[in-house]
Amino acid sequence: MDSLNLQNPVFATWVIAAALMILKAVAMSWLTVVRMMQVKGGYRSPEDLRRTPLNPAPDPRQLEPDERVERVRRIQQNDLENLPFFLVAGLLFVVAAPELWLARLLLYGYVVSRLLHFGAYITAQTHDVRAILWTIGSLILIAMTVIALLAALGA
Fold it and tell me: Domain-by-domain residue ranges, the chain?
């Protein structure tokens, strides 16, 4: 497809936004590990209690949930629930050939809403704050999908 190359600024915008969201989601795995190392716990599997150089003094309490670790896991779960929709909706949106200003507004708006959602979640903001930020991203996904659907119906 002609629209799916980096010479198309709308596609390039989607690639940047998608890459940022994928890197953010992958970073959550690393943040989980960092948090588990900081608290020396929050492990999930019994084999994690084996004595190793990284866990020289295993303790059964290391399998108990730790809120600092679980918070990051919840953030990652939220990413895993939302990122696939963004990747697909964004690609459909690109194929619909929107104006560049609209593509940048929606694609980068989604990225900003997710980064702000992360900030709100990691700092334990209320559900209301997180819900507002999630809603912004969700409405952007709906808008991109509806634009793509209307473009396909009109083709």
Answer: 9-154
What is the CATH T-level fold of the domain 9-154, as seen in this structure? Four Helix Bundle (Hemerythrin (Met), subunit A) (1.20.120)
C-alpha distance from residue 60 to each of 40, 44, 107, 135 (Å): 11, 11, 45, 40
For residue 77, what are the CA distances in angstroms to 53, 70, 72, 110?
A: 29, 10, 9, 17
Encode pLDDT of 74-116 as tens digits. Answer: 999 999 999 999 999 999 999 999 999 999 999 999 999 999 9
| 47-58 residue pLDDT tens | 988 999 988 989
For residues 13 and 153, give the distance between their C-alpha atoms in angstroms, rounded to a whole number: 24
